[in-house]
């Protein structure tokens, strides 16, 4: 092993504490995984190879692999540029939205089956069975995704909610978010150096601010649109401060990409992970290709990305405060 060197800030936020290199040839001593996490990584590698065999060199194969196991190395730089200019990169990085959908699907399936078994219903309430099934499914998906920060946050929040439900309590949403924040920083204090940490918790905070304690008015699509617009506006100061840019057409791109990826592409990708079928992957790639026609057209527009020099910190904080005032109830 060569002489190690000091790690940089970007490596600390990715969990790298020291680096080195191996001289000469490397030899695998044991092909059988020896620990639980090694089994998880072995499973992730097997899924990646199976997806690569089915999809080959198709244009969006890397996106589907990223949705399944959280590995983004197969996404070419040109696609990342499209994501950056349209603000849809959060969809190919497994996020809280994907974990929530998996948990909701598992809870719905278990609830449907539980209600049809009178003996089980009399022994344990349906809601508690659904909550436990949702937590187990979300934890399995989180392990498969590599436990990145947005996934950690969502899993911890779900754990707090399920634990409260099983104990007969109803915690305030703000306390659930605070508990998730505390747990993430306890297990990984360097997470606060990541831009994804601030954007992830900031987005959830905005969602809670927009939906908690407000009466439901109008159709659901209008409420979803209001939340999406609120997130886009509220995160604008952070994006400018961290990346010196902001995707102006993000609401238009996400209005199509979020429902397509969440309710069509991601379920097909996960179905292919559970069952040895090739058809779901082919369907998922076809739908992704159709979606990317719209996203790439928006990305090609000159007005897609607003570039801005880094503002002073006091001005960014004032902008955050101003956005918070705009999102308050009228």
Briefly summarize what is shown:
With 330 residues, this protein is mostly helical. It has 16 helices and 2 strands. The chain is globular, with a radius of gyration of 21 Å.
Q: Distance N terminus to C terminus?
A: 63 Å
- What integer is the average pLDDT? 80
Indicate the structural class. Answer: mainly alpha
Q: What Rg is obtained from the alpha carbons, in whole angstroms? A: 21 Å
Portion in strands: under 5%
DSSP helix fraction? 55-70%
Question: Strand sequence of the main sheet, in spatial order?
Answer: 1-2
Tertiary shape: globular
Sketch the major β-sheet. Answer: 2 strands, antiparallel
Number of discrete helical segments: 16
Uncertain spans, ≥5 residues at pLDDT below 50?
Answer: none
Strand segment count: 2
**Element pattern in H and E:** HHHHHHHHHHHHHEHHEH
- Oligomeric nature of the chains: single chain
Describe the structure.
It is a single chain. With 330 residues, the chain is mainly alpha-helical. It is 69% helix and 2% strand. It starts with 8 loop residues before the first helix and ends with a helix.
Q: Descriptors for this entry?
A:
globular, 330 residues, single chain, 16 helices, two-stranded antiparallel ribbon, mainly alpha
Q: Topology of this structure?
A:
Layout: H1 9-13, H2 36-55, H3 61-69, H4 77-86, H5 89-92, H6 96-115, H7 118-123, H8 126-145, H9 149-166, H10 173-187, H11 195-211, H12 220-234, H13 236-243, E1 245-247, H14 250-274, H15 279-299, E2 305-307, H16 313-327
Helix pairs in contact: 2-3, 3-14, 4-15, 6-8, 6-9, 6-14, 8-9, 9-10, 10-11, 11-12, 12-14, 13-16, 14-15
């Amino acid at each position: 092993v060569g002489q190690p060197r000091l790690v940089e800030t970007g490596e600390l936020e990715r969990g790298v504490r020291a680096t080195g290199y191996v001289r000469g040839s490397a030899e695998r001593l044991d092909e059988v995984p020896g620990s639980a996490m090694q089994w998880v990584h072995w499973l992730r590698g097997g899924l990646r190879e199976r997806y690569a065999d089915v999809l080959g060199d198709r244009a969006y194969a890397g996106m589907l692999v990223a949705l399944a196991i959280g590995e983004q190395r197969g996404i070419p730089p040109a696609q990342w540029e499209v994501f950056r200019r349209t603000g849809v990169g959060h969809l190919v990085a497994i996020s809280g939205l994907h974990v929530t959908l998996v948990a909701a699907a598992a809870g719905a399936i278990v609830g449907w089956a539980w209600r049809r078994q009178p003996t089980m219903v009399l022994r344990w309430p349906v809601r508690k069975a659904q909550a436990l099934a949702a937590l187990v499914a979300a934890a399995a998906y989180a392990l498969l995704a590599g436990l990145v920060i947005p996934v950690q946050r969502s899993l911890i929040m779900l754990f707090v909610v399920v634990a409260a439900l099983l104990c007969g309590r109803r915690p305030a949403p703000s306390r659930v978010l605070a508990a998730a924040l505390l747990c993430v920083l306890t297990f990984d204090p360097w997470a606060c150096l990541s831009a994804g940490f601030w954007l992830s918790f900031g987005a959830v905070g905005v969602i809670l601010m927009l939906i908690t304690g407000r009466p439901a008015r109008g159709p659901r699509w209008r409420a979803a649109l209001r939340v999406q617009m609120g997130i886009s506006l509220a995160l604008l100061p952070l994006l400018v401060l961290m990346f010196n840019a902001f995707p102006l057409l993000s609401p238009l791109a996400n209005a199509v990409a979020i429902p397509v990826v969440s309710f069509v592409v991601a379920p097909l990708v996960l179905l292919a992970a559970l069952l040895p079928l090739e058809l779901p992957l082919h369907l998922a790639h076809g739908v992704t290709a159709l979606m990317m026609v719209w996203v790439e057209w928006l990305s090609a527009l000159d007005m897609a990305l607003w570039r801005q020099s880094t503002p002073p910190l006091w001005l960014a904080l004032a902008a955050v405060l101003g956005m918070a005032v705009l999102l308050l109830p009228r």
